[in-house]
Amino acid sequence: MKKSMFTGMSLLVIGMTFVGCLKNDIEYDENFAYKQKSAMYEQAFINKFGSIAEDHDWGFGQTTGSSAATRAAIAGSDDKEYDCGFYVPDDIVPDKNGKIANLCEAEFNKTTGTTTPEFVFDNYWLLHLNAAQGDHSKMSQLQAFDSNAKNGTGDWIDVTNFKKGKNESIKYFKANTKTKGATLMVNMGGKGDPNHGNKLFRWLEITTQKDGSKDTTFHYDYKFLQCNVAHGNKKLNEMVLGFYGGNHWWLIVVKAANPTNPINYVVEEGRIMCEDLGTKENSDFDFNDIVFDAKRYYNGTIYIRILAAGGKLPISVAGKKVDIGEMTNTGVNVNENLQEIIIEPKSDGQPVYSSIKDIPVVVTPGGDAKPYELNTTNGKAPQKICCPINTHWAEEYVGIDKAYTKFANWVKTNDSQKWIEVEVEELTDLDLNTKPNNAE
């Protein structure tokens, strides 16, 4: 009897200890509620839309200033003004005999050192310096490293028209001056390739084999030199990027690009639509629990405009509580009294958030649960998606895949943002006084 009671008491104590330990473990992990909600949300999203494309960036890779596509810009015609948003450099093309370029090449040949440019390689001009001499046919393509591409992991992109040691384009920017062979690189991030000695540029040597296959060799060796040379009335005093190949230097003038209006120049923008993780199995994914436009400016200022709040839980954006009205549907205060948030740059001129993706959206679930921040990870179910400015959001109670019939395919393919091209207009932008008849 005593032995039986002792065993029973022991089990009771062990059970209480186990429960206590479990409770302590949960309390110790202050993000337990968020992790639980995220896991349930992830599974519900996959059950509804199927598998997610690997490395899906959910639109944040296509925002202005973040595209992996070439940032190079060349005027399409010489008979109309081309407003690129930056001051256009003076024409630096030397005389047709290439004497200035040849003198600059001589400077490179006799100098072993390299000069470090004082500007950051974020926005800059590349201007081809034609040389009268030299065979550069092996220099198949010039590439620049874009550290903003692929959500900050970086990628190499072609510099438009810079091929075979020359700029093959005869077009030029027409502003106050004619600048031939100029290419503008915008929002390149300022950092080099960490996998190749933080190099900013490289040239490709592409050779065709007898069987028709092509081999590519990457050349990363280059140097910068401040060239101060003159020939007759032609002068050059510029920072020059030089690659050596084909027995001669490929010379390119590099100049920092200064925006004509740094306050109004938008570096990155997008419309961000969020789910507050309240979505459960078989419910809608309307992505209208909070909708806001975000713009990051060249001078570091970030502007946020709250457009709609369809969630029932309190939400804050960039530390500011959303207060545009009753948070029961997306029609609240649309087109009037929209909440605006302006975030001034830090003392060093850098933005508080390096990307609009990093703007914190925090949900307060209530009770003992800790507030949690919504996140979007590549290849995982998105808690935030980024769309072009002026994209309509879905009505309350309407799944985004019903408002945009290509959304489900976008989940599987990450096919840019073509999903927004097919919109069921009657299912977007809820009327203030009308509840949708097709509410789920």
Summary keywords:
about 450 residues; alpha+beta; 2 domains; 5-stranded antiparallel sheet; 6 helices; about 15% helix; about 25% strand; disordered N terminus; disordered C terminus
How do you describe this structure in short?
Helix content is 16%, strand content 26%. It has 6 helices and 22 strands.
How would you explain this protein's 3D organization?
The chain has 440 residues and is an alpha+beta fold. It folds into 2 domains: 44-64 and 262-427, no CATH class; 99-256, no CATH class. Helix content is 16%, strand content 26%. The chain is built from 6 helices and 22 strands. Strands 8-1-13-12-11 form a 5-stranded antiparallel sheet. The protein has a 5-stranded antiparallel sheet with strand order 19-16-15-14-22, with no helix packed on it. The chain has a 4-stranded antiparallel sheet with strand order 3-2-9-10, with no helix packed on it. The longest helix is centred in the N-terminal third of the chain and has 27 residues, at 2-28. The N and C termini lie far apart (61 Å).
